[in-house]
Amino acid sequence: MKNNFDFLRLLFSILVIITHSFVLSGMEEWDYLCVLTGQNILLSSIGVKGFFIISGFLIYKSIIRSNSLIQFYWNRLLRIVPALFIVVFLSVLFGSLLYNSPIPYLQNTAVWTYIPINLSLFMNQYYIPGIFEHNPYKGSINGSLWTIPYEFKMYIFCSLIFFIKNKLSSIRVILTGVFITSFLINVLYFQQFKNLGTYASGILISDFICMFSAGNLLAALNIDQVKHLSIMSLLTFVLLIVSIVTHTFEYTHYVLLPLLVITFGLLSTPILSSIGSYIGDLSYGIYLYGFPVQQTLMSFQTFNQSELMIYSLGISIILAFFSWHIIEKNALRLKNIF
Predict the structure, then answer these.
(1) Domain tally, the chain
(2) Contact 150, 156 (CB under 8 A)
(3) Would the pTM of this model clear 0.85, i.e. be above it?
């Protein structure tokens, strides 16, 4: 049965580009939603968290269906690595045209480490000194890659379910415990993490575990078998709006956002549920290409936020279309090799 997940992933990738168009054009990272909510909620934050929620839901389904961990990781690598390799390879290739440094390009150590480090799925390398160093957002080639190691760590976490996949009640108890623990860390220690300057390593991993495990838990609870998902989705959306108005979103979104994303994603809305059939799953490609496209545009000419958003969205969608139909879709055909 068709569902709305392809549409949601596409939407979330566009939200990330919208927010990036502010900061990469030299403005504060205050997008439309951020201004509307008193600088509390970024569109990119909704987008990234939405990705982790959907991933948690679908990855749980994948691990339960998998006959072995080899098959599970092979499928995951096929989805992530081929498109990632192409974007980091192209970044190094075309980076030579934008390079400005007294050190010869091929003698720059960062050129040779950029591809293997970013393909490791555990670390990131954002910079090759001499590229984008005069941009408003100095130096970073592809800041969007920062979430991929977190995503892969979530896969490792979820793969542990494989060993108890026939014990549904135990899985539900464990996932509930993981969700509640990460939720409490986020709510109780958010400010402490920020004050200590360990926000990225501390609260972010806990934040992503909370979103990912929420998707896992909703899958384990068989929410897709619940009747009246459309009513549940609408009520959750209303409650989410209320939480924004009442300034409780910081706490309530850990429950409401996963519920909204999964219940709406499971629906089969006319037009929205067919978008993947018409254009393919472009979300990953848009996410991968958006940042370097925006940085490249800004290296040639100074654009304001609106111009950068429009131009980069158009180019990223075209690149994502080719990425899906030439690279990603064909790579996924190798899933059954094991």
Answers:
(1) 1
(2) no
(3) yes
